[in-house]
């Protein structure tokens, strides 16, 4: 099986967790940002979360370094372009990238500049490569809430022209959904699709709440619906697709190891699952690696792989035209 050649779709990939280490060094020089080292292996080692990460919060510390050089329009555009390029070069045909616009305001950019630069980098890559994409705007649950509406308003100008959805990311506390109902409602009214990180560090109840209170159509990770029958039934009944990210799920201790990842059991039981990277650099992975790991661990046939590919197409926040294009890669 040649996993590299398979057409692939990544619906869950963070921009700031997927920066090339060499680009960090080049941007730091240009921007006169001081780095702990100029050696690409040292920078990579600082960015990659170890398999021994005690939890999600430890994993999330890896984002400070890339964010330090992602505060100009040129840097954001370049990093966006390079992420789409890296994915296209391993046969990812459709990529939804997410990031937190509020994390890129440290040097005076406006939200429009931040979002516009990310979209511009993606569009440039779409011109050059056989890849299509969209952006998802993430709100960090631990940040002050006073600027969330501004992010939603700024992104609304790009809706269906590069931006498609709203997400909540960062540390996951029990019952977080309650505090975000008004924001998710507002985003949905303006036309955003909704996906929410839930059931990664937190319980299945968080998944239940994200679907029932926030209107999540997809769930980032969702691992812990296992063991929470109500959440499990709701996800199945409402055809909510789970964006699983196997390597990241091991690093953050959402699962003990790949063998105990519920991805195949969910799929066999009719829960909609997709396979994604989460963070290409922080999780030291690619779509080829994620697909290979899952297919080898669970002895998936090519037919089973393409069932999962089809779930990704069906649940992508893409236009009908893009979905029709993606279906052409099916054998
Ligand atoms: O797996 C994850 N779970 C929750 N939050 C995450 C994960 N990966 C990255 N981020 C958070 O999302 C922000 C915007 O991209 C990142 O800065 C990081 O804090
Ligand atoms: Zn994520």
From TrEMBL:
It catalyses: adenosine + H2O + H(+) = inosine + NH4(+); 2'-deoxyadenosine + H2O + H(+) = 2'-deoxyinosine + NH4(+). The active site is at 200 (proton donor). Residues 7-328 form the Adenosine deaminase domain. Its cofactor is Zn(2+). Substrate binds at residues 14, 16, 170. InterPro entries: A_deaminase, A_deaminase_dom, Ado/ade_deaminase, Metal_Hydrolase. CDD domains: ADA (cd01320). The record marks 221 as: Important for catalytic activity. Its EC number is 3.5.4.4. Binds 1 zinc ion per subunit. Signal peptide: none annotated. GO terms for molecular function: 2'-deoxyadenosine deaminase activity; adenosine deaminase activity; zinc ion binding. It comes from the Bacteria. Catalyzes the hydrolytic deamination of adenosine and 2-deoxyadenosine. Belongs to the metallo-dependent hydrolases superfamily. Adenosine and AMP deaminases family. Adenosine deaminase subfamily. This is Adenosine deaminase. It comes from Ferrimonas sediminum.
């Amino acid at each position: 099986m040649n996993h590299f050649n398979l057409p692939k779709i990544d619906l869950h990939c963070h921009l700031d967790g997927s920066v090339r280490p060499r680009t960090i060094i080049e941007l730091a020089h240009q921007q006169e940002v001081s780095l702990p080292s100029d050696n690409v292996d040292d920078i990579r080692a600082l960015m990659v979360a170890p398999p021994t990460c005690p939890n999600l919060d430890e994993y999330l510390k890896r984002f400070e370094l890339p964010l330090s050089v992602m505060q100009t329009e040129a840097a954001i555009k370049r990093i966006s372009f390079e992420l789409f390029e890296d994915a296209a070069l391993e046969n990812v045909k459709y990529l939804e990238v997410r990031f937190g616009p509020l994390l890129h305001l440290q040097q005076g950019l406006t939200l429009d500049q931040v979002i516009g630069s990310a979209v511009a980098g993606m569009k440039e890559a779409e011109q050059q490569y056989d890849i299509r994409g969209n952006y998802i705007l993430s709100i960090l649950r631990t940040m002050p809430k006073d600027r969330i509406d501004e992010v939603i308003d700024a992104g609304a100008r790009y809706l269906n022209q590069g931006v498609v959805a709203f997400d909540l990311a960062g540390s996951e506390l029990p019952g977080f959904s309650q505090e975000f109902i008004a924001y998710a409602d507002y985003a949905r009214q303006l036309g955003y699709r909704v996906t929410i990180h839930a059931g990664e560090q937190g319980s299945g109840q968080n998944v239940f709440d994200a679907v029932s209170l926030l209107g999540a159509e997809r769930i980032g990770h969702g691992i812990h619906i296992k063991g929470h029958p109500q959440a499990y039934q709701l996800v199945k009944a409402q055809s909510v697709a789970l964006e699983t990210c196997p390597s990241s799920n091991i690093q953050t201790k959402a699962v003990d190891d790949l063998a105990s990842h519920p991805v195949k059991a969910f799929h066999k039981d009719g829960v909609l699952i997709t396979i994604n990277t989460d963070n290409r650099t922080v999780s030291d992975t690619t779509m080829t690696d994620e697909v290979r790991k899952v297919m080898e661990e669970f002895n998936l046939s090519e037919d089973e792989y393409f069932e999962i590919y089809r779930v990704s197409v069906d649940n992508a926040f893409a236009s009908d035209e893009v979905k029709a294009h993606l279906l052409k890669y099916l054998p």
